[in-house]
């Protein structure tokens, strides 16, 4: 793993663990059982003990982030990472922080629209991914996609279709946020 990737890994791990500070500050104000899953009508339908919700979930997200970064870091030896991969390195830490904040707010009886929040987060993520997918060059894609595209023309067509599909799904999620 190169030095720049190591710095990114350390920084993203810190961001994944950072919400635990908020959990420690608010620990006494939070209920023993905290909601960790919700129905489509924003009603909690699964709970976890406060210690697991506050400390276990960020640790699990940190482990997932570490595994993802270590496994993708070895794919592109001596090649520049595509922009989409640089963006995806930050996906788990950002989602981890946002979901943690939503979980805390719901536990503190704040009015939070979980469905709308998730639609917004995913909609923006899909639009960003859809924007950058077609910008990855063919040589880089051969090292990432399995099975690899057979030729550059097919790859360009495939990446554009995927990019447009992601953007359309992102817009659909943002529209759903309005009606959710």
Task: Itemize the secondary structure elements and their pairings.
Layout: H1 3-17, H2 19-25, E1 33-38, E2 44-49, H3 50-73, H4 83-88, H5 91-107, H6 114-132, H7 138-144, H8 152-179
Antiparallel strand pairs: 1-2
Features:
single chain, 180 residues, mainly alpha, 8 helices, 2 strands, 7% strand, flat
N→C terminal distance: 43 Å
pLDDT averaged over residues: 86
User: Count of DSSP E strands?
Assistant: 2
Main β-sheet, spatial strand arrangement: 1-2
Helical content stands at 55-70%
Strand content: 5-15%
Shape: flat
* Spans where pLDDT lies below 50 across 5 or more residues: none
Number of self-contained structural domains: 1
Please provide a written account of the structure.
- This protein has 180 residues and is mainly alpha-helical.
- It has one domain (3-179).
- It is 68% helix and 7% strand.
- It has 8 helices and 2 strands, in the order H-H-E-E-H-H-H-H-H-H.
- It has helices at residues 3-17, 19-25, 50-73, 83-88, 91-107, 114-132, 138-144, 152-179; strands at 33-38, 44-49.
- Strands 1-2 form a two-stranded antiparallel ribbon.
- Helix 1 (3-17) runs parallel beside helix 5 (91-107) and helix 6 runs antiparallel to helix 8 (152-179).
- The termini are far apart.
- The model has no long low-confidence stretch (mean pLDDT 86).
Short description:
It is built from 8 helices and 2 strands. The protein has helices at residues 3-17, 19-25, 50-73, 83-88, 91-107, 114-132, 138-144, 152-179, and strands at residues 33-38, 44-49.
